[in-house]
Request: fold
Amino acid sequence: MASEAVARLVVYSRDYCSLCRTMVDTLHRLQAERSFLLEVVDVDDNPELEDLFGERVPVLVADGEEICHYQLDLYALDAHLSKIR
Reply:
């Protein structure tokens, strides 16, 4: 019996960022209906990530590919998830 692959998503964010909180909260709610693992990485904990992303957060990434930034793009997320299944 083949098992379904589970997507691993990463949100690069900041603690004080309201857009970041909105994206992460929405993704947590979506996990119930779309199967994926979610990791949240605070860019301020890593100088390299802070330099890389600057003020351009939140950024949703999967397999090294940016899915969207600032606002959650459900179409782009669903397109990525459909490639995995």
